[in-house]
Amino acid sequence: MEYEGNIQKMRTVNSNPVQYFIQFNDKELCINNLIDKHIRLEFKNKINCIHCGAETKKSFHQGYCYSCFMSVPQCDFGVLHPEKDMSHEGISRDMEWSKKNSLIDHYVYLAITGGVKVGVTRHTQIPTRWIDQGAIKAIRFAKTPYRNLAGQIEVDLKQHVSDKTNWSKMLKSKHTDLNLADLKRHFSEKLSPQFRPYLSINNKIESFTYPFNYQIDNFSTISFDNETTVEGKLIGIKGQYLIFENGNVLNVRKHNGYLISIEVI
Fold first, then answer.
1. Domain check: are 132 and 165 in the same one?
2. Ramachandran bin of 93, using left for φ above 0, alpha for ψ from -120 to 50, beta for the remaining angles
3. What is the pTM of this model?
4. Number of domains forming the structure of the chain
């Protein structure tokens, strides 16, 4: 069995455990079915932009050619830094895109990945965003009508809690004694007064399990920027990482647009 195509980040289905599908152009493969099998992934030395399809020697912003990176709204500065999104003031690379993606309800959330983190996501990306980050638990912290305001709340909270995910700790993390409801109350009290009206009344804590039950002390990231072939026994998946028996891990999302073949051997 062999699949080949330009891959994109894994599509997920929130089940117990999470189901993962690697997308190859117009088809996809359920990766959960390959766990505990020896597989080979081979990079065909070709990268295509996930927006325009043009061949590019280097991928920018996880899948774009340089021209698209500099022009399309998906790569605007406010995507990585929500507090710098200016679409609420009519400034955008593409206002029609912003109306559908930035000028809509956003959530500031607390999640437990390797530790507690704060983040921002569109309401349409819950729970996908949490699963992509490998969260084992998450809770809505605040709800805002547009992206910039959610970013401002995130910046305010970053004085007290990190906005980063430690990928190695995330992969090792399976259980937690941390209480997100208590943490939400704690950080709510530290929030600047002008942002408190946006605190979410939804206190539901969502939990996630992943198809990865092994104990590995040390992980090593591997990339098709350095290696043409990745081979080994697949033992699990978490976040957007494929995890191999020898501790090597491959970030699928980082390789958006790469032409890859996958074979069970």
1. yes
2. alpha
3. 0.94
4. 2
Structure token pair of residue 221: 């990231």
Give the count of alpha carbons within 13 A of 60, CB side only: 18
Each residue's pLDDT, cut to its tens digit, for the chain (265 residues) gives 678 999 999 999 999 999 999 988 778 999 999 999 999 999 999 999 999 999 999 999 999 999 999 999 999 999 999 999 999 999 999 999 999 999 999 999 999 998 999 999 999 999 999 999 999 999 999 999 999 999 999 999 999 999 999 999 999 988 888 999 999 999 999 999 999 999 999 999 999 999 998 888 899 999 999 999 999 999 999 999 999 999 999 999 999 999 999 999 9
Q: Could you tell me the CA-to-CA distances from 21 to 10, 31, 188 in Å, in that order?
A: 5, 6, 37
Domain residues for the domain of 28 are 2-66+212-264
Residue 185 lies in a domain: yes
